[in-house]
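I have been asked to look over a protein record a colleague put together. Thanks in advance; the entry in question is below.
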Amino acid sequence: MGSAELGAEPGHRATLVQFSSAFCQPCRATRRILAEVAGMVEGVAHVEIDAEERLDLVRALGIEKTPTVLVLDATGRIVRRAAGMPRKVDVIAALGAAV
């Protein structure tokens, strides 16, 4: 998955992709957690995608609820996937599989 699908530039080491929706309370907390982790780890980007605006991508990836977080490696390959609000420690651990 590259910048065309993401609508943003991926990180050069890994990318945290968050699928959100407008009225999703856990999405706000997830946004804070992922932004914080991306800020801690050099070369990691956080990209948030509005699920309602990108139904094509939601369907192609089988996203069923928000928030859903995908961890992409440097090549754009999905190495981890989780639905629901993640814990910061789990995000950091998942990055270990990508970098």
The two ends are 16 Å apart (CA to CA).
